[in-house]
Amino acid sequence: MRVPIIAGALVLMACGPQIPNKPAGVPEGAFWAGDSKGGAFVAIGVPDHEGWQVKIYDRHSGAVLAQGLFVIRRGAARPSFHQEDFAGWDGRAVRLTDGGVLEPKNP
User: Fold this and answer.
1) Strand partners, 95
2) What residues form DSSP beta bridges with 94?
3) Would you say residue 69 lies in a domain?
4) Does any domain span residue 4?
5) Which domain holds residue 71?
6) 25 lies in some domain
């Protein structure tokens, strides 16, 4: 009886997103934006009338890769973000699962 349960659990774990452990320096509230091939951790501040204060952290070292005011392009406005909103980090902008992009206001 245990073998099918363990096998089922392993299949479910393999199908879900593999979120790496947060390195030192990455805040608790930061979300993973990526997949098994790459990505970064994203920390989102409170919104203001212009956009969101965002910090992007390296998945291995925790170093800050980008920070500043980001705005949503081609996506739905929202009052907050959740883990499931993030699809990836392309080195410049955060891709969102609704097809939108969170990018620096003044690149």
Assistant:
1) 88, 101
2) 89, 102
3) yes
4) no
5) 19-104
6) yes
Place of tokens 């204060």: 53
* Location of structure tokens 């994203």: 42
The predicted-structure confidence for 10-69, as pLDDT tens digits, reads as follows: 444 445 557 889 999 999 999 999 988 889 999 999 888 889 999 999 999 999 999 999
Q: What is the pLDDT of residue 12?
A: 44
Tokens of 42: 């994203």
Q: Is residue 91 part of a domain?
A: yes
Identify whether the C-beta of residue 81 lies closer than 8 Å to the C-beta of residue 87.
no
pLDDT tens profile 65-100: 999 999 998 888 888 888 999 999 999 999 999 999
In a 13 Å sphere around the CA of 94, the CA atoms on its Cβ side amount to 33
The one-letter amino acid at 68: G
Rounded Cα distance between 88 and 90, Å, is: 6
Provide the domain count of the chain. 1
HSE (side-chain half, CA atoms, 13 Å) at 30: 26
pLDDT on residue 107 = 64
Alpha helices in 1-107, H assignment, sequence order: 2-15
